[in-house]
Amino acid sequence: MGALDYRKAGVDIDKGNEFVRRIRPFAQETFRQGVMGGIGGFGALFSLSGMGLRDPVLVSSTDGVGTKLKIAFRAGLHSTVGIDLVAMCANDVVVQGAEPIFFLDYLATARLDLATHTQIIRGIADGCKQAGCALIGGETAELPGMYRAGEYDLAGFCVGIAERSSLMDGSRIRPGDLVLGLASAGLHSNGYSLVRKLFLGRLRWRLDRYVPELGRSLGEELLVPTRIYVSSVLGLLKRVQVNGLAHITGGGLLENVPRVLPQGCMAVLRRGAWEVPPIFKLIQDRGRVPEKEMWRVFNNGIGMVAILPELEAPRALSVLGELGEKAFLIGRIEPCDSREGPEVRLE
């Protein structure tokens, strides 16, 4: 029996060092004003001195990609899940009126695979560039025995900054305000446990199966990355009065919109007021999923909601169009019995 070392135990330090060397240029591409130092220190540094804010407040969010990763494992495609990771965190930061400024990632796997995991970090860097935040650090953990071969998990951590007076908490929302919806790219990163149960389990479809209703393969549809709305939302906030914002993730419109509504207000949304991507009808029809369940699990074509005064709506729709967003007027805010609490009703 030979001598035991860390590599024989499943952790390759040399490969880890090579991985850091490979991903360093990706991170450097995302650097912005405020970044101090580079990748590889014990902690990531960011200076707020040049932000020009009188009363700055930091806003943070952490999230993952969920079981959408299982689709990436099966398809052998890992270049977009990093975008999903950034989107889930950065979109949560911007709805509070904050500009994302830096991001850190956590990648855990049984065994480091340089090609696969470099793809992932490349995707995270791409997402950070879309969100305008710097990828200033992270952790890659090689954990033999914790994960199956070829599998990994991802977590992200985003920090943003805002002037205290500009923070968005929904307290300015009033009855009579209108609700605008920004189109999603599809499923984004929610509902994949149900999706996998349906397509890969019950229907036994292959990911390379061409689906006429979708106009592409099942795998291509399921790996479309989550839209990052940061630049559009920040652009909207500079030009239009917005009273509240909601990122539509797990829980759908029914559970995410009430998170920003004050007591005494409810959102009444109009079915058919926006284009619903075909993937949602396919899921509902093939899985015989009840309508209420669809609304509680999926975004159903709306990835971000903006609530604003009625007079601001035409300008907001114009601005969002200029910023490359497909936006719809999907409802309005009405009064409700404050004892019931904020809610969403469909009509």
What does this structure look like?
Helices cover 33% and strands 24% of the residues. The chain has 347 residues and is of the alpha+beta class. The protein folds into 2 domains: 13-40 and 53-166, 60s Ribosomal Protein L30, Chain: A (2-Layer Sandwich); 178-346, PurM-like C-terminal domain (Phosphoribosyl-aminoimidazole Synthetase, Chain A, domain 2), CATH 3.90.650.10. A hairpin with an 8-residue loop joins strand 1 and strand 2 (45-46). Helix 3 (81-94) runs parallel beside helix 4. The longest helix has 18 residues, at 114-131. The N and C termini lie far apart (72 Å).
Short note summarizing the structure:
By secondary structure, this protein is an alpha+beta fold. The chain is 33% helix and 24% strand. The protein has two domains: 13-40 and 53-166, PurM-like, N-terminal domain (60s Ribosomal Protein L30, Chain: A), CATH 3.30.1330; 178-346, Phosphoribosyl-aminoimidazole Synthetase, Chain A, domain 2 (Alpha-Beta Complex).
Give the secondary structure arrangement, pairings included.
Blueprint: H1 13-29, E1 35-36, E2 45-46, E3 56-64, H2 68-75, H3 81-94, E4 99-109, H4 114-131, E5 134-142, E6 152-163, E7 178-183, H5 192-202, E8 210-211, E9 216-217, H6 218-222, H7 230-239, E10 244-247, H8 252-256, E11 265-269, H9 278-287, H10 291-297, E12 302-308, H11 313-322, E13 327-335, E14 343-346
Helix pairs in contact: 1-4, 3-4
